[in-house]
Amino acid sequence: MTEERLDRIEQTLNTLVGGQVRIEGRLARVEGSQEELKDAVKQIAEGHTMLQASMDRGFADIKADIDTRIAPIAGAVQRHSAILGNSA
Fold first, then answer.
1. Confidence band for 88, pLDDT divided at 50, 70 and 90
2. Distance of CA 14 to the CA centre of its chain
């Protein structure tokens, strides 16, 4: 082989090695971003679970409050309806 051809092969090899180094750097950043994304998704899921539990408790409280307030009113309506039905 001629010296010139060996120089071209060496340049090509250097170019390939440089490209591989850049790709490995990009891959490392992608892997880091992937881990950050996984952590963010995990936090969202945990937040969703806590929010769901809080909403369930709130709805239970509202239902209990409505039941407490509506039951006497419903009883009064039934009594009045019975009275009005008997007097008609």
1. low
2. 45
Q: Give the residue carrying structure tokens 């008609």.
A: 88
CB under 8 A, 24+ apart: contacts of 22-30: none
Sign of the CA dihedral 32, 37, 42, 47? positive
* Cα–Cα dist 64/77, whole Å: 20
Which ranges of the chain would DSSP assign to H, the alpha helix?
Answer: 3-87
Q: For the chain, what is the largest distance between any 2 Cα atoms, rounded to a whole number of angstroms?
A: 121
Predicted confidence at residue 68, as pLDDT, reads: 92
Residue at 14: amino acid letter = N
